[in-house]
Write a structure and sequence with these properties.
The protein contains 7 helices and 6 strands; from the N terminus they run E-H-H-E-H-E-H-E-H-H-E-E-H. With 238 residues, the protein is of the alpha/beta class. The chain has one domain (8-225): Decaprenyl diphosphate synthase-like (Undecaprenyl pyrophosphate synthetase). It has a 6-stranded parallel beta sheet with strand order 3-4-2-1-5-6, sandwiched between helices. The radius of gyration is 18 Å and the shape is globular. The two termini are 31 Å apart. Bound molecules: farnesyl diphosphate. The site of farnesyl diphosphate has 19 residues, from helix 1, helix 2 and helix 3.
């Protein structure tokens, strides 16, 4: 399926742990399968012609999980970066990251920085990983940065508007989210892209992330195209 009139899809990849537990496996087995789904979905989105894909890979709340699980997730991230660097370049995919990246372990952070640098400027698709991310934390950090500039006298507080504030978020010049997909049955945003998804269409599926495939993605996109987006306005008449 070729994607048109849809620039930015953001995915809450949920259900890894339950997928594993339902099969009598350790939760981390679900994350391993989930990492394979990431590879599959990224390739599919690039081939379909999507411009921006953002994945919720690790929330600030996830730091409170058992150390073993946190370490395993960080290891999977590092593995993904090592393995995928060349493929991202081949496919013209620029890697970006949002979140409180200073909290990531050194190895994951330096790999992330390296791949972001070597893929910088590629214009096939931008893949953004949300890592140590929460929407409120991102908004607070942006507010703090702007307040600091105002206190230094380099920014007029009256100049702060929707556009300036939005551009000060970690997502920078990434356009607003058109479609949020959440796998794994829950129906909430869980602190994901609170500002950027203000007018996004929200698609929920019971499919657990390890089982999510290109056909599920296409189903979500087809549903998106069936929606009428009014952005708070009324539909044009005549
Ligand atoms: C939610 O499932 C998923 C996560 C907390 C992590 C998502 C990570 C991956 C898909 C793999 C690594 C990422 C990359 C980019 C290679 P859950 O554990 O909350 O599931 P549950 O709700 O069933 O417990």
């Amino acid at each position: 399926m070729k994607i048109t009139h849809l620039r930015h899809v953001a995915i809450i990849m949920d259900g890894n742990g339950r997928w594993a537990q339902a099969r009598g496996l350790a939760r981390v087995a679900g994350h391993h399968r989930g990492a394979e789904t990431v590879r599959r979905v990224v390739t599919h989105c690039r081939e379909a012609g999507l411009h921006y894909l953002t994945l919720y890979a690790f929330s600030t709340e996830n730091w409170a999980r058992p150390t073993f699980e946190v370490n395993e997730l960080m290891e999977l991230l590092a593995e993904f970066l090592v393995e995928q660097e060349d493929r991202l370049k081949e496919h013209g995919i620029e890697l970006a990251a949002i979140g409180d990246l200073g909290r990531l372990p050194n190895r994951a952070r330096s790999l992330l920085e390296r791949v972001m640098k070597t893929t910088s400027g590629l214009d096939g698709m931008r893949l953004t990983l949300a890592l140590s991310y929460s929407g409120r934390d991102e908004i607070v950090r942006a507010a703090r940065r702007l307040a600091r500039r105002a206190a230094e006298g380099t920014l007029d507080p009256d100049a702060i508007d929707d556009r300036l504030f939005g551009g000060s978020l970690d997502t920078g010049d990434t356009p607003p989210v058109d479609l949020v997909i959440r796998t794994g049955s829950e129906r909430r945003l869980s602190n994901f892209l609170l500002w950027q998804a203000a007018y996004a269409e929200l698609y929920f599926t019971d499919r657990a992330w390890p089982d999510f495939g290109p056909e599920d993605f296409d189903r979500a996109v087809a549903w998106y195209h069936s929606r009428k987006r009014t952005f708070g306005l009324v539909e044009a008449v005549g």
